């Protein structure tokens, strides 16, 4: 027998090799079992378990009376697990055949969608009807996942599209209420975790875990669907009749701040919206009533007069000698038609919409007091109503490098100051409700599984004494019902309001011959129920007269009130406007020859405009054009 002989040094080498291998194995085990244990465990869990996030049902949006404006429809999305199909081509062929049959598409279409996707999970179909989705689930197709989804349905069609907004494919709000209150409407998503086999299918009776979803809350708006439809219909007719480029109608309850209707044009149809359209005009989505600034014109004279009354500096019978012009700083302020009227009361200043008279009121108030009242009325600040993108407006005050003394005068009649439609309605509500600044309210209540949370009415502050507000009721009623044939008059109700006409500013300059016609007011004048603003952008007409606020916007306001007031439970009475019950608007003291002479001196008007007297329509026209401060002959129409 021959014995193998291993030399001692070879034995030691082998021993070292085995020892090193054992050490490496131990180190690897330490790495796998201890150092990288969590990473490997997570990889194994990801392979063996599938986690699916499930969005909860999005809350509904209701009008103030509980009628649905936006609701959710339960649907499904169908996803493909590409890895599951790659592991078993037989399962892939079978699943494609069945999906083609169930969805009514060709097998080539299914393959093309899956192949064009990136990543493991590919979306095959969305907004799948609930019944069809249940059939796909029942078939248990390999590599096919069916997830719950929600499709937004607009019960009133395109009503209030800009207010309501819309959601994207991921069910997140992108505009309007859907965006502003997305966190409330969307709720909290849930998670579904299940054990799966090697090709990705759920293992029957395997481990499962569910994190329940939290459904979104329902939101009750202050919008009234009937009033919203009325506002949109009247606005559409107005634009068609005047050839205007756009406009806004706002209806508000002055006591609660509830926005009852908010209509703006141009707009869009939320029921026919294609977000993939490369030519889509995204400017249509903004809510112009809160984002767009404009110079308000003579509707602002009401604010100036209210401030002076409240400060005790004037009363309705305080007189002003209207010579047709007033010098403020280096500027001469004139009436819009270059007329003059002699002794005029403060009520007549509003009735005739006299620029010099209003400027005199502002200078009587003084700079500090005038701008303090403007801030009290809320100009230059957002309303805190919850609108995304709301503009604060522009109020140029003393201390500003570009402010001059003449700004006090021009600001008093709505020139050189920029506001939003919502700010004007809120300011008029101060007068209508007896002197308090109420915060506009768009959300009335939020409904969750835990109950109903009512959004409270918020009174920001008192701006005017109640006595002042009631005095303004009468003066503003005199502007409408105190003038023969005023187009804002409505048989059956006393009406208070003021018209305005202003230039259109674009890129830092005023556009020649382009105007904004507006009318703001409330009714009934002796017991205000509602404040309404009608704003028409760039109305067309052969003459400037045909584009004035008193001619364009006032009749729309009257027609609106005829529809709004009965609906709000304020039936018509036997009331008929009787101008003789108010301070009479005297005939002009300025003759046609005098006006023509002034026109030649001012070199600011043509002969037709110099001959024109607005009379019954309230002289509401301002042109805010740059002038030479050294030329006192130039003036501002108003």
Task: Describe this structure as you would to a colleague.
35% of the residues lie in helices and 22% in strands. With 638 residues, the protein is of the alpha+beta class. The chain folds into 2 domains: 51-221, Penicillin-binding protein 2a (Domain 2) (Alpha-Beta Complex); 225-267 and 284-589, Beta-lactamase (3-Layer(aba) Sandwich). Strands 2, 3, 4, 5, 10, 18 and 19 form a 7-stranded mixed sheet that branches. Helix 12 packs across helix 15, helix 12 runs antiparallel to helix 18 and helix 14 (355-365) packs across helix 16 (405-412). It is elongated.
Blueprint (SSEs and pairs):
Layout: H1 8-35, H2 37-48, E1 49-54, E2 61-62, E3 68-81, H3 82-87, H4 89-103, H5 107-116, E4 121-129, H6 130-139, E5 144-154, H7 161-164, E6 166-167, E7 173-175, H8 176-180, H9 182-186, E8 190-195, E9 208-211, E10 218-221, H10 225-242, E11 246-252, E12 259-265, H11 288-291, H12 301-310, E13 319-322, E14 325-328, E15 331-334, E16 342-345, H13 346-352, H14 355-365, H15 367-376, H16 405-412, H17 421-432, E17 436-438, E18 443-448, E19 451-454, E20 459-462, H18 466-481, E21 496-506, E22 509-523, E23 530-537, H19 549-567, H20 592-602, H21 607-611
Parallel strand pairs: 2-10
Antiparallel strand pairs: 1-8, 2-3, 3-4, 3-5, 6-7, 8-9, 10-18, 11-12, 11-23, 13-16, 14-15, 17-20, 18-19, 21-22, 22-23
Helix pairs in contact: 4-5, 10-19, 12-14, 12-15, 12-18, 13-18, 14-16
